[in-house]
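Schema walk-through. Below, the input block comes first and the output block second. Nothing else is stored per chain. Lengths vary across the set, and this one has 185 residues.
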Amino acid sequence: MPKLYTADSIEVLRLKIMESLPTIAGGIAVIIGFWLLAILARSIVSRVSTSKRIEPALVRLMAKAAYIGLIVTGLIMGLGTMGVNVSALVAGLGLTGFALGFALKDIISNLLAGVLVILYQTFGEGDRIKVSGFEGKVQRIDLRYTLLDTGTDVVFLPNQLLFNNPVVVVGTEPGGVSEAAVASN
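--- output ---
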């Protein structure tokens, strides 16, 4: 036999929904506020970094990190405002980050080495370098690898290799050769 709802139970349900509306609206407002803040932060990072002449790959990384960080923070705070217990969610995110860190440690180390290679600017595109048995002209420095034109081949060097081994900058001028040894550890 189907369950019948009385006018009293429907009234109780309506009152509970009306009680919850302000907290749900507050949570949605927090999420929308953080979303707008994330868009603004991404725009500000892009403008400031462009005016300071920072490498485009690093600008994209910083803008995306600011955007994703603010979105995740906004979602967690918005759900908390709505009354959802977010402690398990935060713990789960922490464990997921820990596991991903181990699984992707080589990629992450190349990425961080790429950030440091770009920040230190010990060599740039167009420079001739020697590192770990390779010598050639740097075509492009990306966050994960550096493209080196050896004259016969194009070599993708992981940035971790560039950061953990001595690099000799042979020079940039076509007529002369100037040597500067760059050791990084």
